[in-house]
Amino acid sequence: MKFRLTGLLLFAALVTQAQYTETINSNRPGESFGAYSVGTNVLQFETGIAYGEDDHAFTLIPDRTQVDYQYQVRYGLIVEQLELILDGTFVNAEESLLRGGTVTTGSYSNFQRNTFGAKYLLYDPFVKRDKEGPNLYSWKKENLLQWRDLIPAVSVYAGVNLLFGENPFKFTDEPSFSPKAALITQNNIGRNWVLVSNFIVDKPTTDFPTYAGIFTLTHTFYSRTGVFVEFQTYINDLYSDEILRGGLAYLVNKNLQVDVSGLINFKDTPERWRAGIGLSYRVDMHTDDYVIKDAN
User: Fold this and answer.
1) According to the UniProt entry, where is the signal peptide (predicted)?
2) Which domains can be identified in the chain, with CATH numbers?
3) Residue of 251, 254, 257, 255 lying closest to 278 (CA atoms)
4) How far, rounded to the nearest angstrom, does the alpha carbon of residue 86 sit from its chain's CA centroid?
5) Percentages (nearest 5) of helix, strand, coil residues in the chain
6) CA distance linking residue 208 with residue 234, whole number of Å
7) Above 90 in pLDDT, residue 72?
8) Angle made by CA atoms 278, 182, 31, in degrees to the nearest 5
9) pTM score
10) DSSP-based three-state secondary structure for 41
11) Is the pLDDT higher at 163 or at 133?
């Protein structure tokens, strides 16, 4: 019995050191990237649609309603720690402006953002914990908040923004290619809480770089349902803002997740809100080769 138990714990340690999980690991419905990848040979699609408005206090600035088509394609490549990501939003927008008692409207469509990049896990605190094995003598120490939960997994991200042609979402003289980088941390707190932080530098080589932070707290319950709250702040010479998001996700099966979410901001020009739905689907081609050594 002792040998069987030891072998089982060793097998569990080998499994949990991989990025791959038995159920889908989605970034939706928040905007932050998690530190962990989807796993090698896993192709994942995350998409959604949202409707919202940007209303301005100044009458000289047009109000805007828009429909956002959000997409993210993720693929685990070569090693468990590496993931390729195509991330963006295509927008259909309509603007209205009141002048002299007459409302004028106009519409346009294009990519608001479109970025291709790679994420790599630098440090995973669970590797050491898995080698140590679970605490079989104290349920409290194994399941409740511990000091070691404050040590996060750490990833880095580097990508390139791809916006071409006459795009109304580009600022004047913005190049078609510009870099983006991020530092990503993730704390798994107990068994039901996850805190993700993204520290982002976007378009640093252009005339208007953006510096942003996204902080996402997620709580899971009933095994298939999770709720999240997210705060985002970004600083740019053209536009800066703070945004609050919230929503929930439901795991339909191990490869499919659906979600609903919304956002508001803290400014009156524009005063923004969004509401949307989405889904994440995983094409699981992951394979593992385990070598279990004798316990001695």
Assistant:
1) 1-20
2) 2-284 (2.40.160.40)
3) 257
4) 12
5) 10, 55, 35
6) 12
7) yes
8) 15
9) 0.85
10) coil
11) 163
User: How far apart are alpha carbons 17 and 132 in whole angstroms?
Assistant: 12
Residue 243, amino acid: I
List residues bridging with 279 in a β-sheet: 47, 258
Name the residue among 29, 21, 67 with its Cα closest to residue 47: 29
Amino acid occupying residue 188: N
Of 181, 127, 192, which Cα lies nearest the Cα of 159? Answer: 181
Q: Would you put residue 178 in left (φ > 0), alpha (ψ -120 to 50) or beta?
A: beta
Q: Which of 198, 197, 163, 155 is nearest to 179 (CA)?
A: 163
* Mean pLDDT on 39-48: 96
Token pair listed for 84: 């390729």
> Taking a C-beta distance cutoff of 8 angstroms, is the pair 15, 254 a contact?
no
Distance CA 117, CA 87 (A): 8
In the three-class reduction of DSSP (H, G, I as helix; E, B as strand; rest coil), residue 223 is classed as coil
Amino acid identity, position 187: N
